[in-house]
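idk why but the lab printer keeps eating my pages so im just putting this in chat instead. protein + 3-isopropylmalic acid:
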Amino acid sequence: MKLNIALLAGDGIGPEVVDQAVKVCDAIAAKYDHEITWKPALTGAAAIDAVGEPYPDETHEICASADAVLFGAIGHPRFDNDPSAKVRPEQGLLKMRQKLGLFANVRPTFTFPSLIDKSPLKRERIEGTDLIILRELTGGIYFGERGRKDDNHTAFDTMTYQRFEIERLAKKGFEMAMKRSKKLCCVDKANVLESSRLWRETVQAMEKDYPEVEVSYEFVDATAMRLIQWPKGYDVIITANLFGDILTDEASVISGSMGLMPSSSVGSKVSLYEPIHGSYPQAAGKDIANPLATVLSAAMLFEDLELTKEAEEIRRVVNKSLAEGIVTEDLAEGGKSYKTSEVGDWLAKNI
Ligand code: IPM
Ligand code: MN
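predcted complex ->
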């Protein structure tokens, strides 16, 4: 198969981890006879420095006409402590999600056999966890009206949802549940928020179309607790943008490291694949960041293109590297650790 993949390395550790995923994808392409053309494009602080905005039109054109987008990370500390900054790297990510119509963010949580005891959570609680948090990605409080009142003592961000936004996300959730354990949990704050009551009403109305799916409803504060208490109780979770952002960071603890969790963002056109971690500026340029979340995101890319063998091969080699201790320092527990680039080379060589 011929594939055009837009390559958005972004900021911080983004370029380093993306480089390793490219090595792995190229090794897969060589083994299974595909032809990948990488189309690098600017985003984030790197794009602000080069052309003054975090998601330039040229980058959008490259993404919109690609078969898929592989994304690293976005964010730079020089903006974090400057609330007055008008142009911020994160705006690039939000603009990209919106312009590409990526309304559903698929964030799986699973465990790795060789890492179970590295999680701060007890083995019996987490072993066998296999859940997906489906986060709404182009609406809610991330995109609602925000601003300051004239006196500059009041600021506001609004959470708005329209029925169609909830429906299209929930539809994906139901469809995913049908292919899995047929359990769907809608997570909201319907005891307080009107937008959450619209979520519940909308999902309840859809239940009849999926009679085999067992649907439950939970308040997000309770889910935050149950998710680490008994993650095996969940199959597919659907939730609003901000709730999903928070719950997915929490869920990454189950697998042992944030450096391991992949994601895909899907809509009606091109899909985007990215690790759930951020730009980790403290590690940028040091060749120490864990590249596996990005490598596993590439596995999701192949899976979505129905290149199942390719996806399985990536997962196999990742599991092998973990089992053999070919790991970056976040997983080494003071033992021998490998550089980001060494892990990437090892994975490519073992494909
Ligand atoms: C994520 C990140 C982003 C988000 C930031 C960088 C804007 O935390 O992808 O989870 O909040 O969506
Ligand atoms: Mn986040």
